[in-house]
Amino acid sequence: METWRIVATSAFLLGGLVMVLVGMAQARDRRGARRADVMRAALVGTVIVAVVAVLIAYVLPSVVAWGIVAASAIAVVFVTMWD
């Protein structure tokens, strides 16, 4: 496996973990939310991040992979800084 794939996958996983945690927090903050809603948000988010990480690691070309990494980094900055 090429080095750029390892770096891109690691960067995406870091951003993806943050986004899953933000999604869980938003699910928890909804009115009338239950524990199952938070767990569902965690499961769906984790599965999506895992699938995209595998695609970055093995399938996608470099331009697309780095584009996804950049988009996830922008999303993390936007979501965490937005008040």
From TrEMBL:
<feature type="transmembrane region" description="Helical">
    <location>
        <begin position="38"/>
        <end position="58"/>
    </location>
</feature>
<feature type="transmembrane region" description="Helical">
    <location>
        <begin position="6"/>
        <end position="26"/>
    </location>
</feature>
<keyword id="KW-0812">Transmembrane</keyword>
<keyword id="KW-1133">Transmembrane helix</keyword>
<keyword id="KW-0472">Membrane</keyword>
<protein>
    <submittedName>
        <fullName>Uncharacterized protein</fullName>
    </submittedName>
</protein>
<feature type="transmembrane region" description="Helical">
    <location>
        <begin position="64"/>
        <end position="82"/>
    </location>
</feature>
